[in-house]
Structures are given as structure tokens and as C-alpha cells.
Design goal:
Elements (H helix, E strand, L loop, with lengths): L2 H16 L7 H9 L5 E4 L2 E4 H16 L9 H15 L8 H22 L3 H14 L1 H13 L15 E3 L2 E3 L7 H17 L5 H18 L2 H15 L7 H18 L19 H13 L1 H4 L27 H34 L5 H21 L9 H14 L5 H11 L7
Antiparallel strand pairs: 1-2, 3-4
Length: about 425
Amino acid sequence: MNALGLAFLVVASILLMSLPRRLAALPLLLSAAYMTYGQIVNIGPAHFTILRMLVVVGFLRVLFRGEHLTDGFHTLDKLVLLWAMVLLAMSPFHEYNAFVYRAGIIWTELGCYFLFRIFLQNLDDVRQIFLFLCAALIPLALMMLAEKFSGHNPFGSLGGVVSNSLVRDGHIRAAGPFSHPILAGTVGAVVIAMGVAVWKTSRRHGLAGVMAGVCIVFAATSSGPILTVLFTFIALIAWRFREHMRAIRWAIFGGLIALDLVMKDPVYFLMARIDISGGSQGYHRAQLIRSSIEHLPEWWATGTDYTRHWMATGIYANDRNSDITNHILGMGVLGGLPLLIVFLVILVYAFRDVGRALQQHCASSTDDQFFIWALGAVLFGFLMTFLGISLFDQSVVYFWLCLAAIQSIVRQPSANTATQRRAAARGQVSPR
């Protein structure tokens, strides 16, 4: 860890300990957006990134202040714990350092998820975080634009990322502090959705979020993030047809079955025909799904440490594996069908809870209901992203933020609504 990383860690730790609860998630989210995985402290086989150290600080804050989950454990919280236990339980069936590697994943992802759950306790808390993020990620967008036009990554001095930007088919692809341009672009797509979600609350912040996200996606120059934006906006537009979503879902399902019947290849090979930015690897992603099905006996029970024979090409960092550009399939590689199924169930319950939150806030303003719908749209964008990339760096924190935000809204009315109900009970105002 260099001096800049140490300074960031100190400042972020102070903020994490001192900020009001509803803003305490910001240091974690800004660490994921501005610090690379190259800023680490090595202790034996363990690698402590700045984000992992901040997770420790976050739980110390929770302990000292007596903060906790105000609404108890939801079903999704229990499923997330089950996911972590299955991931860890599969360690003996993998290479010798699998336990340390998986413990690191759990430390980061599970730690961030439950800290977000503690810090964000209602809809207004989540909205406040989104407002701050829309403004706080503007510098990241500007630095990635600078990288896009110069070919030099300003985060290169932090280590863990390339100093000279990736170039494909003559296009510079900015990655910023992330391990790959697609991961950077995915975060940009999420920020766009955040900007849309808070637009009616603050157009200034909403515009800042949309512009910052557009700049990040443009700088990344990857088809995946552009498609994430597209699918997210399709989900946002579906707000106007929310009363007919059951019929729409069945129509989509039927359309996919019909396509599968008439296509020579399986329906998921549609992704092989999409190339927005030039040089897309859609065929690789489709073939990876096919290969994983063909080699199912090798990984279904506990996962596998060898996938190099699945594809014609491998990855330069590991001669034992193919490039697993699929987050859901990555769960299968790590822990077989048990881990993959638990992860899919998490996604199903998260979508279910978006619907439950909408029902519980049916008496709230339309703006509140649309904000909840926007969280579902972000989750849908992540689901589509998972079919084309595995979030293997700090970008995954924004996925866990989405899950935690949904859970914090379920059974929790907004702060304003709760205040009005208490006042109504005292006879001061009429309830809505």
C-alpha cells in the first residue's frame, strides 16, 4: 500500500466512524469506486484490500454504537448467509488455498451487504445514498474520460490495474480503478439508473448521475455495459405497464421458447449476434454456456478447478481455466449446482421483495413507488450483466448495495410516511 492508499484508508475510516448512520455506507462505496485492488496489505496468505479493512472498521462502528438490523432478518438475509456457508463448505473439494480465497470473498461481499443493511433502514436512507453517489462519482467519470482520450489510466499508480489502457479494434477502453473496462462500465450503468431514480427528488443530482454514468459507459467502450443500460431502461419503461407485467412476462417466456424451437442453436446464442461497440465476444459467452452444459458431470456437485478444455481459448493469468464470463456460471464453478441454485434463489427472492415493497408502499407517493421500481430495474440490469461477465473485483459491491437497499425498503415505510402516521395517531394530521 502506498502513501495515497494509506491516506485514503485513514480518511475513509474516520468518516466511517463519524458520519451519521444513513451516510455511513458512503466510505465503502467510494472505496469501491476510487481504490484499486492493488492497494493491499499482505499477512501470510491473506490479502487485505482497503475495502476489506473498511469492512472491519464498519463492524467496529456497529459494535461501539450498538447499531443493528432494526427490522430483523429477512428471508433474503438468511439466503445470503446460506450462500456464504455453501461457498465456504465447498473449500475442501478445491485447491489448497481455496478456503482463504473464499473467506476473502465472504469478508468483502457479505460484510458490505450486512453493513448496508444496518446503515440503510428505510426508503429515504437509500434515496439519500443515491443522491450522494450521483454527485460523488462525477470525478471518476472525468478521470475515465481522460483515460479514454489519452490511453493512460490515472489509477495505474495505485497498482492492480493496467497503466496503459486496453485497445481493441482501434478503440481505447478505459477501466479506471476496476480490473476490466466491462466492470467499470457496469458501475456506470448502475449510476445512470440511480440518476433516473432520484430525478424527481433532485433534478440536479439526477442529471449528475445520468451524465456521470453515460461518461463512464462511453469511456469503457464495451457492449456489455451498453446492453446493461438498455435492459435497465426497458425495465424502467415497463413502469408504465406495471399493471400488465404478468402477461408481459408470460409473453416473453413464450417468445423465448418459440425462438428456441425455430433456431438452429439454443436461444441463448442470440447474444452471439450482438455487437454494439465493435469486437464483442458474444459468441464466446454463448459457447461458454453450451460448454458448461456439456461438461456438467465435471462440476455439478462441488464445482471444479479446471475448465481450460471447455473453450478454445484460455486466460493469460491462469492456464487451468477458460474465461468464465458469466457470473451465475461462476457460482457453479466455485460451488457446483448447490451454490449456483442458492444464488439464483437469492435473485428470485430479491425480485419478489421488490413487488412486496411496492405493495407495502401503495399508499405512498408515486415518486416513492417509482424509486422502488427503479431498484428492481437495477437488479434486472445486473441479471442481464451476469450473463456476459463475472463481477470479480470491487464492482460487485454495487450489486450487494442493490440487494441490501431492496431489503431495507421491504416492511419499512419511508421516514416521512412513518412520521405522518405517528402524527396521525396523535390526531395532529390526517393520514394519507
